[in-house]
Amino acid sequence: MHCVRPVLCLLGALAACGAVGFLGCCVYFDRKRRGDPAFRRRLRDNSRAQLRKAEGRGAQLWDPAKNEKLQELLQEVQTGELWLSRGEHRLGVEHLSNALVVCGQPQELLKVFQHTLPPKVFEMIVH
Fold first, then answer.
1. Do residues 71 and 117 both lie within one domain?
2. Pair (122, 68) in one structural domain
3. Whose CA is closest to 70, among 81, 61, 59?
4. Residue ranges making up the domain that contains 83
5. Alpha carbon distance 88, 46 (integer Å)
6. pTM of this prediction exceeds 0.70
7. What is the pLDDT along the chain (127 residues), one digit of tens a residue?
8. 82 and 113 both lie in a single domain
9. Are residues 19 and 71 in the same domain?
C-alpha cells in the first residue's frame, strides 16, 4: 500500500509503536507488582482494615435508643392518622403533637404536616 503523504504515515506508525510499547510496559510492571509478596500482604492488610472500619461504622449507625425513639415517633404518627381518619380531630392532634415532642427535628416534621394535613388540623397542632 502506497501512502500519499509519507510524513503522516510515519507519524501514524510511530504513534502506534509508542502505544504498543506503553501498553507493554503497563502489563509488565502490573505483573511484576502483583507477583510481589509485599504487595499481596499490603493488599490483604488494607482489605482487613477497611472491613474493620466498616464494622465500626455499622455499630455506630445502629443505636437502640434512636431506634426506640423512631418506633415511638412512627407509632404516634400512625395513631394520629388513624384518629383523624375516624373524624376524631382532637385525639389525632394529640397524637401528632406527641410525635412532634418525640421527633429530633420537629421543624421538619411540622413542614411535612403542613403539606399533608388539612389546614384546620394543622392550625390545631400549631396552637
1. yes
2. yes
3. 61
4. 64-126
5. 59
6. no
7. 566 688 888 888 999 999 999 999 999 999 988 888 888 888 889 989 888 887 766 555 555 566 788 888 889 889 999 998 898 888 888 988 888 888 888 888 888 888 888 888 888 888 8
8. yes
9. no
